[in-house]
Amino acid sequence: MKKKILVTGGTGYIGSHTVVELQAAGYEVVIIDNLSNSNVEVLKGIEKISGICPTFVQLDCNDKAGLSKMFTDNAGIKGIIHFAASKAVGESVQQPLMYYRNNLVTLVNLLELMPEFGVEGIVFSSSCTVYGQPDILPVTEDAPIKPALSPYGNTKQINEEIIRDTIYSGVPFKSIILRYFNPIGAHPSAEIGELPNGVPQNLIPYLTQTAMGIRQELSVYGNDYDTPDGSCIRDYINVVDLAKAHVIAIERVLGEKSLADVETFNLGTGRGVTVLELINAFETGTGVKVPHKIVERREGDIEKVWANPKKANEVLGWTAQESVEDTLLTAWNWQKRLREKGIQ
Ligand code: UD1
To answer: Which stretches in the chain have pLDDT values below 70?
Structure first.
């Protein structure tokens, strides 16, 4: 058995896929999650795939005493992958203090407790949102950080600064910051996937719900951008590919190999896809039509962003494997599974 890893937010979308990959690589996993945006049933899906039910503690990372007790009860945690956070851009504009508490205080609590419990490394979930609209595409890790467009985006920037300042102060642990582009899709088994609460804000769950007939029509936010078909461009990355990058990152941060005490990597495919291309790829791959209409631009949207993933490719030895087309099929299979279960 390899080392014990704490996954915060481990019943969430990216967290649950990462738990599966950690278990496949032989790690022992402890999940903490406050279940504010996920369901405890996810544990069953994880167990179906891997045959192992991870240890689960329902806990909010704001609860420092609770965290301390969890580290004592689960002695020997060597690394943390920190997903737990609030992530709805619009909501963060309405409730900024909730975002600052949920996304900043939680990280500070973990960083403060790490030396006390001998935790040697932390992998942090950041986002390409820190680049804003990059001046040069594809965007590399040394591109300038642009002023955040929302409290959510700001928390990711501040989180990164908190980590760097802490590491530079000489603490006895290391960190890897992962900047995700747009994670989509589901596990190929369709046992776990994205489970949005209420009306989805993100493109793929809205698209698959529309294809299923749950939503009448998908709104495409703008077709007058400076892109080949006028709709926005993103770099859509398969969630299992993304999860695998976390296994490499935790191995690296806990390993003997020399690395800078804090490193940052883009996790994307390197391919930019427009919203209309994505809808088209979904319709072609599944044979299911997605009713859609062009509407006004969405406030705060970035026109185009896609990754230069060369650093992750070369330094981590990680490359996104799955095509957008195949990934869309996994998202559709997951939506169909939810229907079978009577969930959505
Ligand atoms: C957003 C956040 C990003 C965050 C991520 C987390 C912004 C600017 N960025 O990414 O920081 O990490 O969510 O979930 O808010 N679209 C439609 N119709 C829809 C929904 C989306 O056309 O109903 C378009 C959007 O205009 C965008 C693309 O689809 O071009 C992707 O949107 P979305 O899935 O919401 O992700 P981001 O906005 O890229």
So the answer is: 1, 257-258
What residues are annotated to the active site?
A: 152
Task: Give the dihedral of Cα atoms 228, 231, 233, 237; nearest 10 deg.
Answer: -120
Q: What is the pLDDT of residues 128-144, one digit of tens each?
A: 999 999 999 999 999 99
pTM (predicted TM-score): 0.97
pLDDT in the model for residue 65:
98
Three state DSSP letters for 248-282: HHHHHHHCCCCCCCEEEEEECCCCCEEHHHHHHHH
The residue contributing the CA closest to ligand 1 atom 19 is 203
3-state SS class at 107:
helix
Distance 203 CA to ligand 1 centre (A): 6
Q: Are strands 273-274 and 233-234 parallel, antiparallel or unpaired?
A: antiparallel
State the DSSP code for 130. G
Instruction: Measure the N-to-C terminal CA separation of the chain; round to a whole number of Å.
Output: 38
- Residue 259's pLDDT is 74
Query: How does DSSP assign 174-202, residue by residue?
Result: EEEEEEE-EEE---TTSSS----SSS--S
Residue 258: the pLDDT is 64
The one-letter code for the residue type at 17 is: H
Which residue's alpha carbon is nearest to atom 11 within ligand 1? 129
Which residue owns the Cα nearest ligand 1 atom 29?
Answer: 203
For domain 4-184+238-267, give the fold.
Answer: Rossmann fold (3.40.50)
Please provide the size of the chain in residues.
Answer: 344
Contact 222, 294 (CB under 8 A): yes
**Per-residue pLDDT, 197:** 83
Residue 282 · residue 328 · CB < 8 Å: yes
